[in-house]
Task: structure prediction
Amino acid sequence: MSTTTIPQSDDHDRLANVEPEIKAEILAEALPYIRKFHGKTIVVKYGGNAMTEEKLKHGFARDVILLKLVGMNPVVVHGGGPQIDSALKRLGKEGNFVQGMRITDEETMEVVEWVLGGEVQQ
Result:
């Protein structure tokens, strides 16, 4: 049986100061979801912003490990919004968004495929 180590961060020290009653409340709130999704495959998006900040990277990794430790089967899919926006800007093109959703024309799709298939997946 393999063991998994959860990366340590400042969050660990911060949780040391949380009252036991609060920790119990958080666990009690999480348990129905843990039971519901135990043994299930869970798709988790690793957003482009989380890829650029060390603290978010560690927190994301810790959360995915936790999902596995409680019996879920996480599958990670990546985003890449900031990287796509940067590539578009370098090409002199601006992204088009409606209510926070990217609207992608054919030319932009080529850039998205290039960024997500090459730059981000590395």
Observations:
- The chain has two domains: 10-78, 81-119.
